[in-house]
Amino acid sequence: MIFRDETITEEIEEKAQILVDALPYIRDFNQKIIVICFEGSNLLSEEEEKELMRDVALLKSIGMKPVVVHDSKMGHDKFRENKMVAKMIELSGIKAVGICGIDIQTILMNVDNDYIPVITPNDIDNEDVPVSPADCAAQIAKAVKAEKLVFLSETDGIRDMNGEKVGQIMYSDFKKLLSEKGDEGTDGRQAEREKFAADFLESGGPRVHFIDARTKHGILLELFSIKGVGTAVLSDGGNYYPHELSHGKLITE
Length: 253
Fold this sequence. Notes:
eight-stranded mixed beta sheet, two-stranded antiparallel ribbon, 9 helices, globular
């Protein structure tokens, strides 16, 4: 007699359904550059940071082209941190290379050669000058014509005037919201990210995502599900993917 463990079967079926749901996104994102701004190094433990970089490696393994821009832990050497982040990715069997500063030619050369560029905003000439990872990431995203610009930080998304998190918002409505909030409406670092997000979208970028870096597998849940876990800001016109249209654009419900 064969005994069937219903609990195990349900878990397997649930995981299989997750893969089925992710498949349309995997097709849509194939060979697309995604710039990830990670500003959560001081929020995560070393093991949590490794897990996040495993998720980034997974994006590469299914056909995307990630570019990582990161901050550094308080009091740590920026260039050593850069090598450590690249090493975390390579532990998953994916090639990564540390790059100092904004060097678009070097970034694209490494992307074309199947590496994940891992970038610290500083280079040797401005080692001791504070440089915003968000600014660096936005500049790179515009220059390489990224499909997405993703902000991973202490913030789980965009808040409306009532303080409620917005799951999805169009660029024109996003600009209106920023204007309504004014200079005092958002934490300084988040306000900076929102400004750079608007700049990327204004330049023709398709989509920006805001995700809490502390959410387990947050980048996967945001990119490969209809509802997501953060906020997606879309360029006017939507730039919806075909399978999103089939769901009636019900991303935020």
